[in-house]
Amino acid sequence: MNDKLINFMPCIFCKIINGEIPSYKVYEDENTLAFLDINPVNPGHTLVVPKKHFSNIEEADEQTLCQVIKIVKKVGAGLKNNLAAPGYNAQVNNDPSAGQIVPHLHFHVIPRLENDCLSLWPQKKYKKNQAEEVLNKIKIK
Ligand code: AMP
Ligand code: ZN
Fold this sequence. Notes:
By secondary structure, this protein is of the alpha+beta class. It has helices at residues 3-8, 12-17, 62-82, 130-138, and strands spanning 25-28, 32-36, 46-50, 87-91, 107-112. A five-stranded antiparallel beta sheet has the order 1-2-3-5-4, covered by helices on one side. The longest helix has 21 residues, at 62-82. It binds adenosine monophosphate (AMP) and zinc ion. Zinc ion binds at residues 11, 13-14, 53, 104.
């Protein structure tokens, strides 16, 4: 789906925040909502969203990002303590090219279970001089 079409569609997470669509709420405060992902990678897979609509990390202000990450930490602790998950993945699919389907910034908090047989993405090796070249482009000065 292209970016223009995604941004035109009514935001399903805003509808959840406004109570127009039901959700299984894990946590809610004035600024942030956490609810179960309807198609979990593992049971307990939770989405943490700012209540204000931002499409991605770059759009969101720092205060909002801090508020959201604090709740990611709380949710992650709950998964570890109450689901006996030894770990979890906290992930943002930032933009459609990174797999983002719902255009409202959200963190996936995915409990990882022993032997759940999930694997992360494949990794590559740097070619000669490639690390230096890319570093020159992205180094923050
Ligand atoms: P992403 O690919 O990062 O945009 O992920 C969007 C996530 O939202 C997917 O994992 C979906 O399963 C989840 N999702 C979509 N609609 C709903 C809904 N109504 N309630 C809960 N989760 C949803
Ligand atoms: Zn939204």
